[in-house]
User: What shape does this take?
Amino acid sequence: MKPVRIVIFAKAPVPGRVKTRLIPALGAAGAARLAARMLDLALEQALEAAVGPVELCMSPAPGVAAWAAIPLPAAIETSDQGEGDLGERMARAARRVIENGESVLLIGTDCPQLTAARLSEAAARLAEHEAVLHRAEDGGYPLLGLQAFDASLFEDIPWSTSAVADLTLARMRALKWRVWLGDALHDIDEAADLVHLPAHLRAAMQLHRE
Assistant: This one.
């Protein structure tokens, strides 16, 4: 079984630059606080899953001032997302990891339901499949796992639309890959999604508002 690397894509939680669709509900500072807490949770769950190395793929690059006040666990590795659309950035990371002899779980920080248990299960299923995927209820995906690379999974995808997961799965079928599908999960992108926050995050945000 190949080692499995979890690569977490994240923006620096700077007010006004992250979670912009939540600003009407939380304000710029509140949306950035939530982004920071969800980043912490994603890192915590990835490390707890203990399936292999955990890498934070950052925008902007590591060492830029936007990250200076953000505490990160010593156990993680860091990398730069680089230029291009989301597909180009994910493709670069996936190709690099797979060409280095590892399998990869690509995740973001928008889905608190990606628990350590779900990450562990995805890694285990990846040993028997070319790809694993958790859909999001909005049609995207919060987790894509690969032990083989094909650029078609990342090219000409209408990112941030409800077609992303279905189109990705269709491309996998065209490749005749074995694919494991996990539960459909909720991303936290808009005010209506806040009901899906874990209780401890909802409580923390409420305390700040008070």
Q: What stands out?
A: The beta strands are 4-11, 54-59, 77-80, 103-107, 131-134, 143-146, 179-181.
